[in-house]
Amino acid sequence: MGGKEHAFLTDDHRTTERFYNLATAATEGVSATLVVIRGEPFGKSFELGLKPVTIGRSNACDLQFGEESVSRRQCQIAFDGESYYITDLQSTNRTQVNGDDISRCQLKDGDRIAFGGVVLKFVASDAVEAAYHSDMYARASSDPLTGIANRRVFDQALDQVVRAQHKAPVGLSLAMLDLDRFKEVNDRYDHLVGDQVLKKLTDILNRQRGEGELIARLGGEEFAIMMPGLSLREAFGKMESLRHAIARAPQLIEDHEIAITISVGVAEFSPHMRSQQALLRAADQALFEAKAAGRNCVRMAESQSA
């Protein structure tokens, strides 16, 4: 329909066209995407549909960003039947589109939305570009060998969970674990076999993972498991079961039967801990004690301080 003809539509015709556009959008699925191009989680994409999407720092928001510089309710993006519009929700630091403060404006393909150190790119109906950004996010957030979360993602997630614990404690335990004598595996066989051992260990960790838990490879043969909702004793029992499961299942890799054991340190979040680093230090110290005790065992952090 041409622009001049559109200008002479009656209100009834406009209403009919709007409902047609809504129905078309509903049948065709997602028609736009937001991609994080600055801030965390960098590179992640969020699909937009027909329902309004509220963005901010609050847990009640549809898209949540943890930065303190983001208002609790920063802005909202909604589809009006023809286009997507963004509305600033009287935020403290204002919402910008392409560098300009806005109250409400229409979004166009390629627009950049900025607030509190976060920058989002609005991608309209471009599945190829959205898929590209999703792939970039996957590459940036996962360990290339095992496919689980990497150190960067783990640190970010742990920081957010620890902050939440200060506001509404629900319990949080952290396990740090090492694959015992992994260097000997690499020296006796080769690094390709060592890589397979790490993958086998990851498979077991994934099978034992509980709901809401995050498993990450921190580097080399060191892994971490974040367990929200579990007390220290509960986490210790779970890690003991995991240790037994790994020790009972020697892995056959390229005709080599290789016994795998792990050493584990477990710590629980305490209100006295002011940051994630205190929890990490407590779990790491417990892991050191497990190694000093002869490996293939689990140790709990005896004292936890800020």
Would you write up a description of this structure?
The chain has 306 residues and is α+β, with helices and mostly antiparallel strands. Helix content is 37%, strand content 27%. It is built from 8 helices and 18 strands. A hairpin with a 6-residue loop joins strand 1 (32-38) and strand 2. Helix 5 runs antiparallel to helix 6. It starts with a helix and ends in a 6-residue tail after the last strand. Residues 1-30 have low confidence and may be disordered.
The N- to C-terminal Cα distance equals 66 Å
Q: What would you call the quaternary organization?
A: single chain
Give the strand order of the largest sheet, numbering strands 1, 2, ... along the chain: 2-1-11-10-7-8
Number of strands: 18
Tally of individual helices: 8
Measured by DSSP, the beta-strand proportion falls in 25-35%
Shape: elongated
Largest sheet: 6 strands, antiparallel
pLDDT averaged over residues: 84
Q: Spans of 5+ residues with little confidence (pLDDT < 50)?
A: 1-30
Order of helices and strands: HHEEEEEEEEEEEHHEHHEEHEEEHE
Which structural category fits the helices and strands?
alpha+beta
Question: What key phrases describe this protein's structure?
Answer:
18 strands; alpha+beta; disordered N terminus; six-stranded antiparallel β-sheet; five-stranded mixed β-sheet; 306 residues
